[in-house]
Amino acid sequence: MRMSELSTRSGVAIATIKYYLREGLLPQGVQLAATRAAYDDSHLRRLRLIRALLEVGRLPIASIKKILDAVDDDSLPLHELLGTAHYALSPAVESEPGEDWTLARQAADRLVDELGWAVAPGAPARDELAQALLRLRQLGLTTDLRPYAELADRLVTEVELPTIPLDGPREAAVEALVLNSVLYGKAFEALRRLAQESASAARTANAPQSRS
C-alpha cells in the first residue's frame, strides 16, 4: 500500500508517519521509486503499537524507541520483552533517605517473596509498593496488603494474562500488555470507587442515626 493508504487505514497523519520513519520507530517500506515506497500490514501493526504506547501509555519517544528495539530483537525472550514494556509504564519512584524507607522496601520484598512471585529485584513496582507501604504506615493505616495482592494475582492470571497473545506477533503482545496495564487498570480503579460509593451508601443507610 502507498503511504496515503497507510495513513488512512491507521488514522495516523502522513507527516507523523514520516516523523516515525526518520526516528526509526517505523521500519522503512519497500522502495518502489525515488519518492515512493510500499507498506504492508506489519507497518499497520507497528503504528497501532506506537499509538498505544504514546496515547494510552503516555510514554516519551525515547521510551517507545527502547520498547520497539526490544520488539525487533528476536533473540530477546518474550518475557523480557514484556518486562521492558512493563517497566517503561511504571512511574518513577525515588528511594527516600532514612530507616523508614529501608523497612518499607524490606516489607515490600518480603510480601513478594511470601506470595512466591517471580519478580526481578530491580522491578520498579517494588519501589512503588514500598512507597505505598511507607505512606500507609505514616498515616497509621493497615499495611496488610495480602488481600489486595491475592486479588491482583487472580485478576492477572485468570483475566488479563489469557488476553495477551503469546504466540502471535510480538507487537500484539506488547500492545495487549499496555492496554491491560493502563486502560483496564483505569477501569478497575473507577469500578472500585463506584463500589465504595455504593457500599458506603448502603452502610450509612443502615447505620443508627445520632441524636442531638
Features:
212 residues; mainly alpha; 9 helices; two-stranded antiparallel ribbon
What do these coordinates show?
This protein is mostly helical. It has nine helices and two strands. The protein has a two-stranded antiparallel ribbon with strand order 1-2. A hairpin with a 2-residue loop joins strand 1 and strand 2. The model has no long low-confidence stretch (mean pLDDT 88).
- Give the total of beta strands: 2
Mean pLDDT over the residues: 88
List the total number of helices: 9
| Element pattern in H and E | HHEEHHHHHHH
Q: Give the neighbour order of strands across the main sheet.
A: 1-2
Shape: elongated
The low-confidence runs, each spanning 5 or more residues with pLDDT under 50, are none
Proportion of β residues? under 5%
Quick one: biggest sheet? 2 strands, antiparallel
Q: What structural category characterises the helix and strand content?
A: mainly alpha
User: What does the oligomeric state look like here?
Assistant: single chain
Q: Supply Rg.
A: 22 Å
Helix content estimate:
55-70%
> What is the terminal separation in angstroms?
77 Å
How many distinct domains?
1
Q: Any chance you could write out the topology, listing elements then pairs?
A:
Elements: H1 3-10, H2 14-23, E1 30-33, E2 36-38, H3 41-56, H4 61-72, H5 78-89, H6 99-115, H7 124-138, H8 146-160, H9 170-206
Antiparallel strand pairs: 1-2
Helix pairs in contact: 3-9, 4-5, 5-9, 6-7
